[in-house]
Amino acid sequence: MTIGKGRKIGTVAVCVLAQLLIAIDLTVLHLVLPSLSEQMHPSTTELLWIADAYGFALAGLLITMGNIGDRVGRKKLLLIGASLFGVASVITAYAPTAELLIAARALLGVAAATLMPSTLSIVRNVFTGKERAAVIGVSSGLTILGFGMGPLVGGFLLDHFWWGSVFLVNVPVVVVMVIAGALILPESKNPAPGRIDVLSVLLSMVGMVGIVYTIKEVAYKGWGHWDVAVAAVLGLGCLLAFVLRQPRLAEPLMDLKLFARRAFSATVGTTIVAMFAQLAVSLMFAQYLQLVAGWSPLKSGLAGLPGMGGAILGGVLAPFGIKLFGRAVTIGLGCALSAVGFALYSGIGVTIVYTDLLAAMIVFGVGLALILTVATDTVLGVVPKARAGAASAISETATELGGALGIAVLGSALGALYRSELVIPPGVPPEAISDTLGGAVQVAAQLPPEQGALVLANAKLAFVDGLQVTMLCSAGLMAVLAVSALFTLRGVPKVLEDPEEEPAPVPVAA
Predict the structure, then answer these.
(1) Which of 168, 187, 281, 475 is most open to solvent, judged by the fewest CB atoms within 10 Å of its CB?
(2) Which tens digit of pLDDT belongs to each residue from 440-456?
(3) How many domains does the chain fold into?
(4) pTM attached to this predicted model
């Protein structure tokens, strides 16, 4: 596809705006959670689902939406999704209960699932080779900046308005994106599309929800509950059926042949593991800065900006890293820097030392951007343009699934560590402070000053102890991933030329 330079710049701007919107909306909720806890009093499970519903709905539908975009047009799907995102944002802002908020966040996830594969596949069809790597590097850095802008924007709004205002700011952004997208974006789609297999859609969604529910509940309350067993069997069964069904379809929802490309499968696997460890940081440190350090939401948001500067730097440096060292070494370096960042994070204490956090944030941000930039460009570069939507969807599914699982598993593990380390003073009902740090803060404010201070001190110490262990485990995971990337991505070319389209698969059975 050949378009002018000005329109190319406009295309990048619209796609980055869409990615920023998703990133901000994902992280801004982490800042809102303390306020939500005070006003809605959700249970620990409800609080995790409020945080996870968006990511899980997004991950569950990305494959489907990527395929739909290949068939109906990526521009058309992006505009529809952006409009739905605006409507869902209004519903989320005015949700009166935890249950309705979870449902509204899930609807936002559905809308976001239409945006993410559309933006990447549009970039894939407009840019090629070194130009694509540079564009993805810049857009990745700016997208990670969105993870920092979320707390900043949210902090400002929470200091002046009610919690729902952080979602209403999506509306004007959506209006600009829809108008600009309609005028600027080029349309592209698969010239020979097939039908969507509805059964595959259902199997993938039920399978993912079942597995995620199992992980969350096992981490929180252990095995031995009938709902956990049912969810585990249903999730594994549906995912197995999904994988076995795909090769038997003329138009599979997930083309498993893509995974035969070593560069594709290794990069997807690396992305899942990296995001598993990394996205939980935003959730944990929003709580640390507000509930342990006692900072306001706005101050907490400002505190995270240097890390986003590191992310922008990493995104800009990634194409140079590919050119100088190759893809395997660049991703390995990103993983190693992330491991160092996690190790530095593990040194935090109840008394905050911001200079220590500053070093950790910058190193971590550079590492994360290196991983995501190179991984995204690699996944898009090794598949034909006609499959850009499906490949983009798999890449984004890896990102979102890894991140969502990280929040569920590491968030639940942090909760379990908090409960195991918590020392409950005499005369204080255990159930009142043992679930979450937020609950302990609320209870402490209602107790006599001396007793309340003791409850608060014990709760903060237990939370920080759990956070330190979680960060050390994440550092070890990223160190292993750094070594693994050097082997799994060895030999992948620095410059990925457009591959030829393969013949259509012959169905084994309908």
Answers:
(1) 187
(2) 777 777 778 888 888 88
(3) 1
(4) 0.75
